[in-house]
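So, can you check?
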Amino acid sequence: MTLASGADPLAGTVGAVVAAAPQGPNNDTISPGLAGFVTVFLLALVVVLLMRSMVKHLRNVRYGPGPDGTGPAGSASAPPADPPPDEPKA
C-alpha cells in the first residue's frame, strides 16, 4: 500500500462528508414558535397586572404634609385641621 506523492487518503472522505452536511434552516421560515409566543404573552400579561395594581395602590395614597408642614407636598395651602378632642367632664 503506497501513497502517490501529494495524495491525501482522507481527501475524498472529507469532501463527501462536507457535501452531505445539512445546509441548515431556511432564514425565511425561522420563527420563535409557540414557546416565544407564550413567553411574550405572559410578559405582557404580567405588565398589565402590575400596572393595574400600581394604579390601585396610588389611588389609596393619602398625601400628608410636606417637609415644611404646610400641606400636601408641593402645595402652599394648609389642609383643614381636625378640631382638638373635647376633654371629658368629670
The CA atoms of residues 70 and 78 lie 5 Å apart.
